[in-house]
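FW: tagging you since you asked about this chain on Friday. Here's the raw sequence from the shared folder, copied in full. Didn't touch anything.
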Amino acid sequence: MDRPRFSNRQSAVPPWFWLGVAVLWAVALGLRFWGLARFNTLVFDEVYFAQFGHNYITHTPFFDAHPPLGKYLIAVGIWLKGFNPWGYRWMNALTGSFIPMIVVGIGVQLTRRYSFALLAGALTVLDGLLLVESRYGLINVYLLAFGLLAHWLTLLSVDQRGWKHWAILTLAGLSFGAAAAVKWTGLGFLLGLYLFWVIGQFFRIGQKSAQASSEIPLEKVLRLSFFFKLFIFIPVVGAVIYSLLWIPHLLQNPEFGFIEVHQQMFGYHKRVGSGPSIHPYCSSLLTWPLMLRPVSYFYQLASSLQEAMPMTGPPLPFDKAKYIYSVYAMGNPPLWWATTVAIALVTGKTLWQIAQIGGQKIKASSQNAIQFKPERHYLPLYLTTSYAAHLLPWLSISRCAFLYHYMPAYLFSSIALAWVLDAWLPSKNRSLRILSLVVIALTMLGFLFWLPFYLGLPISPREWQWHTWFPSWI
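HL: got it, structure written out here
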């Protein structure tokens, strides 16, 4: 996975790149909006989030265990289109369609290799869990959109000077605050950058002074002059916007003040508990990288394709059903498992580099100092710390958790897979080229195979059994 040194001169963007971006966005948009109102009922946590969004429209007091921004955005959709499946879902679908585009932007900033950026965006489009989350009135897509946008803006800011630099950095701070205003777990995006900066200072020690200067955004983030901006300016801006976003909610729900509502929320999460007795689809973080326990969002049996969904009356026996409508919050299995392998490889590479640098520091020999290739060293560190920042905090959380809580970490493992594949595709090693093509082919086939589960398309009971590979998926 060695790369040529990063060039400070940004070459002209090739036309095929913009064509690729347009195609990816069109596919992402179409998949999210097609049949958006197929199920005329509240699905999974829409019973909370869509209803809470409607409560803002009707000025109905309520208590919510999450910050309010996600529900504000759902409320905007309802205000424009009404309290119906289209109304409380279309804003999610639109937001979800832009997430692959943000990933493409991050890819460009990380490497300036447009093939890598498009591949990272394509893998995001082919992720089933993100597609499902984008098609219902839930809030995880807003968490991902604002968190990834904050990373992209932070990387973009270091390439600017003067007022443009500060303007983009301010937008990054606003995005970090917005991510936390959707869910507190949005703070993981900022934690990932903090871990990268702290460990990256150790990496910088290993550079030869004569070659210490490079112009990749990741290295610019590590420079000591960036300390004030990353650890003081951005958090202050984020805290301000986070606090301001609470004002409409507190005005409508005056029972608790700003401090007390946070105490109530924290107490709720502590009381939730964990295990199947709390919710049948609870899962441990140890199972997330292998996708052992997807979440069923909708399941109904039908005797004909003419029946409206959802059906009323007693449920149809399984042996009488001709069709099953089933929506699973699950990833694309071949892609999901490949990303787990990729992030393991990248994490192993990062740990090996840390050990190398530690050894060189002990020897204190400048002649044997490690020859740094900025992308080869900093990009694996960035992916590893971002992944860890979203996964490891769950070790200390005892409440019931679900597969979709892995989504922020998963997206960084998906970028890691794109980086590995983009290195293998032009490799002189024929086996690596073939392996990368096999992974891409299986990813596309897996997406098509499980598409009925993502879109809630009717399939026969036999086909449904073909798609549920493991007992834990049921």
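FW: Residues 15-473 form one domain.
HL: agreed, and DSSP finds 19 helices and three strands in the chain.
FW: great, closing this out.
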